[in-house]
Amino acid sequence: MSTIDSTAGGRVDERRVREFQAASLQRHAIEFGEWMVRASNERARALGHRQLRPAHARLMVFLGWDGSRITDIARAQDVSKNAVSQLVTELEDLGYVERASDPADGRAKIVRYTREGRALIADAATIAERLDAEIEAIIGARKLADLRSTLAEICRHLGIGPAP
Fold this sequence. Notes:
Layout: E1 3-5, E2 11-13, H1 14-23, H2 25-46, H3 54-61, H4 70-77, H5 81-93, E3 97-102, E4 105-113, H6 115-139, H7 141-158
Antiparallel strand pairs: 1-2, 3-4
């Protein structure tokens, strides 16, 4: 058995580390999520949304249909308000979102979809259905349903994702 020193001063089973790197749940979840973002973005560009970047798609996942505050989006993404503001500005320049007064608090601003942004989200729903069909072709309808419900259950338990 091959071992290496760890930063904590102990010995680490190299085989175990290599298995972790190759087959951990974290790796599979990250790679699958990144594939979903890349595939969605490629298809959105093919439908005419040519300026979109993966960071835009990640932000739009956290933008509520009726609008959201930048602070809420930043908290949900665990990034700075400045990072979200920069992406919002880019999406404004592309015509997908606009900043408006928050109806609940006129002093605050919300980010909301424009007509073009709502059309993009409609296209995103179509893209998602097609990606689901591709995944279903790989694992079958039952496993896809199980995957969806399992991921939703994990998210609910961890307190992440949209409210039920």
